[in-house]
Design a protein that fits this description.
It is built from 15 helices and 12 strands. The protein is α/β, with parallel strands linked by helices. It folds into 2 domains: about 140 residues, Glycogen Phosphorylase B (Rossmann fold, 3-Layer(aba) Sandwich); about 180 residues, 3-Layer(aba) Sandwich (Rossmann fold). It has a 6-stranded parallel sheet, sandwiched between helices. Helix 7 links the parallel strand 7 and strand 8. The longest helix has 17 residues.
């Protein structure tokens, strides 16, 4: 039996996307045991996946401490993994690979300033461009497998596996339909559109559709979410009481909602894995090609400033570029609600046409 480890010490969306490695490597080695090594706050997107036997979780700040890293290296080496996949490919994961003793150490090649050491037996280059609608981040991870092993008919879509109890979640049964989840804040300031713009979107939805708006945000963003709420016009259609502060909680809640409109982030990838419609507002600082999975202009649609204004960056002077770097909202302010509505209105009409006012 092959023992396989996947190292993905990054955010929620990255971990969910990397679950395609487990789903596909089990096709190559059906009797294998697949373990994931991830940050503790991301494990929820992997739970109940039948292709994943074990999850090793670690606190992000702890792993960056050298003594903890040495302990982790020793632990991984003791497990005697046969194959390690490292799509993370940063210092900690490369060191784990180097000393793991695994026969196959498969990692994505990055430009590093450190000494060139044989971290990987199979260093895999990033693809130059995406060729499928699953997004380049997923394609790169599938390419890690097919570059080394014979994988027939890859499955590109990440999956969320719910328990029967989670499928029967009933907290929103009494709410006015449709129930629309709004990701009102990004995981970082650079991924969050200006509050006043988000409020215009909320006001448009509540003015044109009977239903209930739910807010999604990280637990530490509660005060910021309250600020957005206070700025909204139709507060009676916004329910702040129904909120889940864990990944599994959000998963079972989102599974009962009708659609998601959100800043780009992990919630979008979760919702796509649940096969619910999504409209994503990309930060101008995010490379859309990497993360725009399964967008077809119908079930999943999105907007990115540089698609609307492709010559924007080239028109900046050096002084303007420096100012933008110091003010992360400079570009976001150019992604106006009017611009967003050009795509959002037909998306909402298509999915909510039976729920209009």
């Amino acid at each position: 039996m092959k023992k396989i480890l996947v190292i993905q010490n990054k955010r929620i969306g990255d971990v969910l996307i990397s679950s395609v490695i487990a789903n596909n490597i089990k096709k190559v080695f059906p009797q294998s045991e697949v373990t994931y090594f991830v940050y503790d706050y991301t494990t929820g997107v992997l739970e109940n996946n039948p292709n994943i036997a074990k999850i090793i979780s670690v606190k992000e700040k702890e792993l960056k401490k050298f003594p903890k890293l040495l302990q982790t290296i020793a632990r991984i080496r003791k497990e005697k993994y046969d194959i390690i996949f490292d799509p993370y490919s940063k210092f900690q994961s490369r060191m784990i690979c180097l000393f793991s003793g695994a026969e196959y150490r498969i990692g994505l090649k990055r430009a590093h300033k450190e000494l060139k050491l044989p971290f990987y037996t199979h260093p895999i280059s990033f693809l130059e461009h995406r060729s499928k609608n699953c997004g380049k981040a997923i394609e790169d991870r599938i390419n890690m497998i097919v570059s080394v092993f014979d994988l027939k008919e890859p499955e590109y879509a990440p999956k969320i596996f719910l328990t029967e109890a989670e499928k029967n979640y009933d907290r929103i049964d009494s709410l006015q339909k449709p129930v629309i989840m709004l990701g009102i804040l990004g995981s970082t300031p650079q991924k969050s559109m200006p509050y006043e713009y988000m409020v215009e979107i909320i006001d448009f939805i509540t003015s044109n559709y009977n239903g209930t708006i739910l807010f999604n945000y990280a637990p530490h963003q509660k005060d910021e979410a309250q600020k957005v709420y206070e700025m909204c016009q139709n507060k009676d259609q916004i329910n702040l009481d129904i909120y889940e502060d864990s990944i599994r909680g959000f998963i079972k809640l989102m599974n009962q909602c009708d659609l998601l409109v959100s800043n780009e982030g992990g919630s979008v990838h979760i919702t796509k894995a649940l096969e619910k419609p999504t409209f994503t507002i990309y930060s101008p600082y995010v490379n859309k090609e990497h993360w725009c999975s399964f967008e077809d202009g119908d079930h999943h649609d999105s907007i990115h400033l540089l698609e609307e204004k492709p010559d924007l960056f080239s028109s900046f002077t050096l002084e303007e570029r420096r100012r933008i770097e110091q003010d992360p909202h400079s570009l976001y302010k150019q992604l106006t609600p009017e611009m967003i509505f050009e795509k959002l209105k037909p998306f909402l009409a298509h999915h909510l046409n039976n729920h209009g006012t």
